[in-house]
């Protein structure tokens, strides 16, 4: 159990958490209004299968955006409660990615209006409300477009604000982490690597899950004839990322090396998918013509995240091979003795200390053998002289 001083949030921390929650609530309300107008507009038309797929994809993108807002709350709470500077930086970057996403979402709506609805049969009969299909589309466009611009403006302004408060928080966190890991420079470097890897795994969870969700209307739009790919990504992705988190939080090097190899194979899939999505067919129907920008955005970010995860997982694995352990010996940042020590497994700590001692003992023995060999050679040369 952490002591009261450790868990006490600073004023900046409270303001940051409140701001992130308020942004999520306000933007979610605006997104729900956009969804309401979207559904109402689509209900006036009889869409073909392709139009239904575009409409479903559009709704899925709204849902992903709302999930991203609440995922930011999770990142903010976790980073502030655990004094995690790395995760705080990732929160700022994630918010900037949300801004890019909001811009692409605006483009996706235009596709629905220009292609999905214009090729559909107008079935509304009350001429007093909506005399023609063009009038209905223009009416709902005038309702949705201002809301979408407001959303982009809020996310853009909040990105600047979040960067400023995060900078101030990072100074606070830096001192708390220094008190825990300042004794050994190797430990501090290993802690930074582990923190980066943990943050990458959390962000991986969101982007892999969001990509899999986008494949739900794949049969209607024409990506694939089955949902097997979607199910495999959900199941395999979840299991792999759970293994990754477990291996890092418990510093299990053999589980981590399995995760690294699985990530390499998953990287092959995502690179192949990124190429496939952006290869326009020479003839026939292009199934990705309406969703190429969104899929490219998620595939590109996910591919970059997986590459970075592999790199940092390999660096953490190297540290474990060298018997450099952080969480096993010191626990989380900000733990300063007392009851907190009970939260760390004594058996694991003792085991890690034994491994470190044996490693140092082996190094000392090797150095002693080298010194003995050098001394013997010197003595033999002296005797020859």
UniProtKB/TrEMBL annotation:
Cross-referenced InterPro entries: UPF0658_Golgi
Presence of the UniProt keyword Metal-binding in the record: no
Domain of life per record: Eukaryota
The keyword Repeat is assigned to this record: no
Keywords of the record: Membrane, Transmembrane, Transmembrane helix
Gene Ontology CC terms, in alphabetical order: Golgi apparatus
Transmembrane regions: 20-39, 59-81, 88-107, 149-169, 190-213, 225-247, 254-275, 295-315
Protein name (Swiss-Prot/TrEMBL): TRP C-terminal domain-containing protein
Organism: Diversispora epigaea
Species classification: Eukaryota, Fungi, Fungi incertae sedis, Mucoromycota, Glomeromycotina
């Amino acid at each position: 159990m952490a002591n009261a001083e450790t868990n006490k949030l600073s004023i900046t921390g409270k303001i940051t958490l409140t701001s992130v929650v308020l942004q999520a609530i306000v933007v979610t309300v605006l997104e729900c209004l956009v969804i309401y107008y979207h559904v109402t507009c689509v209900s006036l038309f009889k869409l073909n299968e392709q139009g239904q797929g575009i409409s479903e994809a559009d709704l899925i993108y709204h849902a992903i955006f709302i999930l991203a807002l609440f995922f930011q709350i999770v990142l903010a709470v976790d980073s502030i409660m655990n004094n995690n500077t790395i995760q705080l930086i990732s929160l700022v970057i994630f918010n900037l990615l949300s801004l890019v996403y909001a811009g692409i979402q605006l483009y996706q709506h235009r596709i629905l209006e220009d292609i999905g609805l214009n090729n559909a049969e107008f079935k509304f009969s009350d001429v007093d409300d909506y005399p023609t299909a063009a009038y209905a589309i223009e009416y709902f466009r005038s309702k949705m477009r201002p809301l979408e611009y407001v959303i982009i403006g809020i996310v853009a302004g909040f990105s600047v604000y979040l960067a400023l408060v995060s900078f101030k928080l990072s100074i606070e966190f830096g001192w708390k982490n220094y008190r825990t890991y300042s004794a050994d420079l190797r430990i501090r470097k290993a802690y930074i690597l582990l923190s980066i890897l943990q943050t990458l795994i959390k962000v991986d969870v969101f982007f892999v899950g969001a990509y899999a969700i986008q494949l739900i209307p794949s049969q209607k739009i024409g990506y694939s004839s089955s949902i097997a790919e979607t199910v495999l990504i959900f199941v395999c992705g979840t299991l792999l990322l759970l293994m990754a988190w477990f291996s890092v939080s418990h510093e299990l090097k053999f589980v981590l090396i399995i995760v690294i190899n699985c990530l390499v194979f998953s990287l092959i899939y995502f690179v192949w998918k990124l190429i496939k999505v952006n290869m326009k067919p020479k003839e026939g129907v292009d199934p990705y013509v309406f969703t190429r920008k969104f899929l490219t955005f998620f595939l590109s970010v996910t591919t970059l995240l997986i590459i970075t995860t592999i790199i940092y997982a390999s660096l953490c694995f190297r540290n474990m091979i060298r018997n450099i352990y952080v969480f096993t010996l010191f626990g989380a940042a900000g733990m300063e003795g007392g009851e907190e020590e009970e939260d760390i497994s004594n058996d694991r700590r003792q085991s890690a200390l034994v491994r470190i001692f044996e490693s140092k003992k082996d190094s000392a023995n090797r150095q002693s053998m080298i010194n003995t060999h050098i001394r013997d050679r010197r003595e033999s040369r002296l005797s020859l002289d």
